[in-house]
């Protein structure tokens, strides 16, 4: 086998192995975000949408979005505190940025 072919095969295999690790990290993060949504539904009474972004292997951003009708009765600080507690408990390392927002569904 020529050296260039060997290099290509080794590079492709290495890329696949790295990709498998990334895929499992993404799947694990998605499961955690689903768990966060379920835990907040029990805590607050309405299930939020939970989005996230990983940058260079670090959880950079978590966005938790509630329908405004479901959380209008809660003070903002109380809602943020509940979200922060659940998110912090769910991930080994807290995200660099946590956004809690509401969505008006009309």
Short overview:
This protein has 106 residues and is α+β, with helices and mostly antiparallel strands. The chain contains three helices and three strands, in the order H-E-E-H-H-E. It has one domain (28-103): ANL, C-terminal domain (GMP Synthetase, Chain A, domain 3).
Plain-language structure description:
Strand 1 (about 50-55) and strand 2 form a beta hairpin. A 3-stranded mixed sheet has the order 1-2-3. The termini are far apart. By secondary structure, the chain is of the alpha+beta class. The protein is elongated. Helices cover about 60% and strands about 25% of the residues. It is built from 3 helices and 3 strands, in the order αββααβ. Helix 1 crosses helix 3. The chain has a single domain (about 30-105), classed as ANL, C-terminal domain (GMP Synthetase, Chain A, domain 3, 2-Layer Sandwich). The longest helix is centred in the N-terminal third of the chain and has 42 residues, at about 5-45. It has helices at about 5-45, 70, 75-90, and strands spanning about 50-55, 60-65, 95-105. The mean pLDDT is about 80. About 15% of the residues are buried.
């Amino acid at each position: 086998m020529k050296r260039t072919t060997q290099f290509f095969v080794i590079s492709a295999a290495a890329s696949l192995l790295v990709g498998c690790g990334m895929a499992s990290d993404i799947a694990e993060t998605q499961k955690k975000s689903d768990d966060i949504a379920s835990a907040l539904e029990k805590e607050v009474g309405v299930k939020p949408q939970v989005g996230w972004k990983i940058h260079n292997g670090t959880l950079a951003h978590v966005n938790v979005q509630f329908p405004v009708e479901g959380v209008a009765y809660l003070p903002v600080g109380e809602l943020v505190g509940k979200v922060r507690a659940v998110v912090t408990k769910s991930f080994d390392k807290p995200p660099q940025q946590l956004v809690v927002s509401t969505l008006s569904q009309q």
